[in-house]
Write a structure and sequence with these properties.
Layout: H1 4-27, E1 32-34, E2 37-39, H2 41-46, H3 50-62, E3 75-78, E4 84-86, E5 93-97, H4 98-101, E6 103-107, E7 113-122, E8 131-132, E9 137-143, E10 145-150, E11 159-162, E12 166-169, E13 176-179, E14 186-195, E15 202-203
Antiparallel strand pairs: 1-2, 3-7, 4-7, 5-6, 7-14, 8-15, 9-12, 9-14, 10-11, 10-13
């Protein structure tokens, strides 16, 4: 997909071309006289409106269908009315209890953060679609069984977590998909730390190294509340 950055680069190319064209015209290109008419190939090329063509190209590329993979059948509930807001420095936490418990905590966050607590319900066959988050998540499966696929794994090997088990998702561009491949409804609860004001979830394209999941039609029946 062509972005505005690409458009800017193409515009720079056009500006550089115009500069080089002037230099070539003044030093090497001599007009060819044909029956009283001066012909110059660069002058003729100048008549082609390059920038409008570039803009049209960007608009056409932007209108192309997205390759993102939306969620299928998953219901996500926010367990707090609004995300918790933690100013920069408030999540700088350190606790050294190694001598007593063999446990040492170090957490340092630079910049304001939003903290979400979510509960996601997965009917049988439901999945989150490929996505990432701009920050890390701490996830615990509270019912059923969930299968996780990580796109940065060259073999995209699945990992299964049952009720009572937990896993982490670093986010920060790491693309993953969570799916209920069991026989009963599954539920997880997640705590997510996100840069303040940013989208909690970012859609991602289908990874080439991972299996493709097709959402059933009709979509999986919602789990009983």
């Amino acid at each position: 997909m062509i972005t505005l950055i690409d458009l800017f680069r193409l515009y720079q190319w056009k500006a550089n071309y115009e500069t080089e064209k002037k230099e070539i015209t003044s030093t090497t290109i001599q007009p060819q006289k044909r029956k009283g008419t001066t012909m110059n190939s660069l002058t003729q090329f100048k008549k082609i409106p390059i920038l409008p063509l570039l803009i049209a190209l960007v608009l056409a590329a932007t209108a192309a269908p997205a390759l993102a993979t939306p969620s299928c059948g998953v219901t996500t509930t926010f367990l707090t009315p609004t995300p918790g807001h933690f100013p920069s420095g408030l999540l700088d936490l350190m606790c050294n209890e190694f001598n007593l418990y063999g446990w040492n905590l170090k957490l340092k966050v630079k910049g304001d953060s939003d903290v979400y607590i979510t509960q996601s319900t997965f009917p049988v066959g439901a999945d989150t679609g490929w996505h990432t988050h701009p920050g890390p998540s701490l996830i615990t499966v509270t019912a059923g069984q969930l299968t996780v696929y990580e796109a940065d794994d060259p073999t995209c090997t699945s990992h299964v977590y049952s009720a009572g088990e937990s896993f982490t998702d670093i986010g920060c561009g790491a693309v993953h998909l969570v799916r209920n491949e069991g026989t009963v409804c599954a539920v997880d609860v997640a705590v997510q730390i996100i840069p303040a004001g940013q989208l909690r979830r970012l859609e991602a394209d289908q990874p080439a190294n991972c299996p493709t999941f097709t959402c059933p039609s009709p979509t999986p029946t919602p789990c009983p509340q």
